[in-house]
Amino acid sequence: MSIDLRSDTVTQPTRGMRNAIATAEVGDDVLGDDPTVQQLERFVASLLGKEAAIYMPSGTMTNQVALRTHTEPGDEIILESQAHTYYYEGGGPAALSGATCRLISGKYGIFTATDLKQVLRPADVHFPRAKLVCLENTHNRGGGRVYPLSEIKAIAQVCDYQGLRLHLDGARLWNACVATGISEADYAQPFDSVSVCFSKGLGAPIGSALAGSKEFIDRAQRFRKMFGGGMRQVGMMAAGALYGLKHHRARLEDDHINAKALASGLASISGINVDPDAVQTNMVVFQTISIPAHVLVERLRLKGVYVLAVGLNSIRAVTNLMVTTQQIQQVPDLVELALNDHG
């Protein structure tokens, strides 16, 4: 049996989720007739403390629709240099919004209010108009780091003073909430818009939602249609998302415990560099000292362990719904065998 730690997107629906999907009441969502989608959107809006929410096929779409709704062509978006919205979304800000990106190099994906102040420029016809700041919580390329709420509030104060809008890529916000005990609504409160994902740790097949004010979501609906995100009888997928929200959020703690255990096991291996104390949620990023990351990834694949190379000597493992504690306990030994396997 394989141990798939490439991402928490590899999860498959549980039996209970499959039953919810199979029995979902559906309608034409483009015409506003799908009751299960409407139920999901109300649930998400309430959970995040926002007026409204809208369901979309992916987190990339919710992020890019948010950017397009907040900005006009030529505007500037301020992001961390490794942010998913910039790094992994196919040049969406430029292609879909005509926006420029101003990057801040954060620490583990996190920048501060002071960092933000330092990149802001005075109003001048030579410069693009800064309109939007984007944060990511937890931060993917930061190794699943949690954005401190105190820092988010400080950044929000700068945004308020400067007339900037603030968007959260909260694809893994659920993990941040479980790790800190802070509610989704408290984390979402400083933001004008919030994107959340259902197909990662929650285990739903597809789907994300974008939340904000009713006026914002009304405008976002137009861009969802423009970007090809209008779906018909999609209540089946919304039912999977609802099931995950109601049944799989609390169990994310299991993933976090497994990630800590994995990091601790890897730390004892000669040839591997990892800091277990840096693991805050469900991601473990470790370095290979003696061989390139892609070589170890391939050796592990042959042993039934799937991970991703995220740098020349960096590998990421993501604990998830499909991986048990017993399987996690096997991984360090398999890594050590793979390191010493000279073919």
Whole-number tally of structural domains: 2
N-to-C order of helices and strands: EHHEHEHHEHEHEHHEEHHHEEHEEEH
Supply the CATH architecture of the largest domain.
3-Layer(aba) Sandwich
Number of helices: 14
Which CATH class of the largest domain is shown? Answer: Alpha Beta
Helix content: 40-55%
Notes on the structure:
The protein is an alpha/beta fold and 343 residues long. It folds into two domains: 9-247, 3-Layer(aba) Sandwich (Aspartate Aminotransferase, domain 2); 251-339, Alpha-Beta Complex (Aspartate Aminotransferase, domain 1). It is 42% helix and 17% strand. Helix 12 runs parallel beside helix 14. The two termini are 22 Å apart.
Layout of secondary structure:
Elements: E1 3-4, H1 15-22, H2 35-48, E2 52-56, H3 59-70, E3 76-80, H4 84-87, H5 92-97, E4 100-104, H6 113-119, E5 130-136, H7 149-162, E6 165-170, H8 173-180, H9 184-188, E7 193-197, E8 208-212, H10 214-226, H11 235-247, H12 252-267, E9 272-273, E10 283-288, H13 293-302, E11 305-306, E12 308-309, E13 314-318, H14 325-339
Parallel strand pairs: 1-11, 3-4, 3-5, 5-6, 6-7
Antiparallel strand pairs: 2-8, 7-8, 9-10, 10-13, 12-13
Helix pairs in contact: 1-11, 2-11, 3-10, 6-7, 12-14
Task: Give structural attributes.
2 domains; alpha/beta; 343 residues; seven-stranded mixed β-sheet; Aspartate Aminotransferase, domain 2; globular; 13 strands; Aspartate Aminotransferase, domain 1
